[in-house]
Recover the amino acids of this structure.
């Protein structure tokens, strides 16, 4: 996972690196928050990171990234 986060930071193969991040936060939300009866406010950070991973998967890393050649 650390390698995936490093790839997301530098923007190299960000779409591929976002897939394990998405899976990680789906598992975190289901097992760590929903099944334990956690509140919505405590599950919000994991939900935001899940949405961020989905956004990067769909849109890519952007212009200031290694993939774009900058």
């Amino acid at each position: 996972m650390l390698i995936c986060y490093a790839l997301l930071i530098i923007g190299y193969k960000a779409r591929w690196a976002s897939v394990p991040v998405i899976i990680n936060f789906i598992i975190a939300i289901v097992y760590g928050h929903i099944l334990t009866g956690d509140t919505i406010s405590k599950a919000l950070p994991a939900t935001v990171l899940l949405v961020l991973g989905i956004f990067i998967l769909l849109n890519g890393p952007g212009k200031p990234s290694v993939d774009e050649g900058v």
About this structure: Helices lie at 2-10, 14-34, 40-59.
